Amino acid sequence: MGYGIVETTNYLLFTNPVSQGVFTGLSEVARGLGITPRNGANKQVAAMKTVNAIKIPLYDLAGRNLLFTRIAGISGASAIAVNAYYTQYHKPNLNKHPELKQIFEKTNKFHFIHSLVLLAVPLVRRPWLTGSVMITAMVFFCGSGYYQSLTGNSKYRNVAVVGNCLFFVSWLTMLL
Questions:
Q1: What is the pLDDT of residues 10-27, one digit of tens each?
Q2: What three-state secondary structure class fits 93?
Q3: Transmembrane ranges (predicted)?
Q4: In whole angstroms, what is the distance from residue 52 CA to residue 70 CA?
Q5: 89-110 residue pLDDT tens
Q6: How many CA atoms lie less than 13 Å away from 65 in the CB half-sphere?
Q7: What is the value of pTM for the model shown?
Q8: CA dihedral for 27, 30, 36, 40, sign (positive or negative)
Q9: Cα distance between residue 71 and residue 147, in whole Å
Q10: CA angle 106, 110, 116 (to 5 degrees)
Q11: In angstroms, how far is CA 30 from the centroid of its own chain?
Q12: CA–centroid distance for 56 within its chain
């Protein structure tokens, strides 16, 4: 007879050998730090001083670099708008030129991903460096990719290569 949902959850979370090992290890670490009584003689629970956390709205975390959060919003909205425009008004080109569709999808995916990454830019050590390089990379890479996929003209293909290199550099600037 099989286990029910309660038995399965209990086994997965508490009674399997891995979970028991983790709980045992954590108990030993806590006991070593003096968080729990060393022996059963001391049953009193030490009174802990509670500290209320300061509630800060998420937009305040950006501080002076709120501009990048706003640019991320504009960039994400523009990625959605370009995607809607392309799928609505370029349907005949989707079947005729599958390579242009592939370029558009890759460009739009990079646009979305890096729009989301711009939300985290205020949290890095040098946000102005990371943000400005990333925005430049988005303009170069996504601009030339959108141009090529919408017009069929590969005149600015080399600009996409520069934009791709700038994406790489912008990710590395997060380490600084």
A1: 776 777 777 777 777 777
A2: helix
A3: 67-86, 130-147, 159-175
A4: 31
A5: 877 776 788 899 899 999 999 9
A6: 20
A7: 0.67
A8: positive
A9: 21
A10: 150
A11: 33
A12: 21
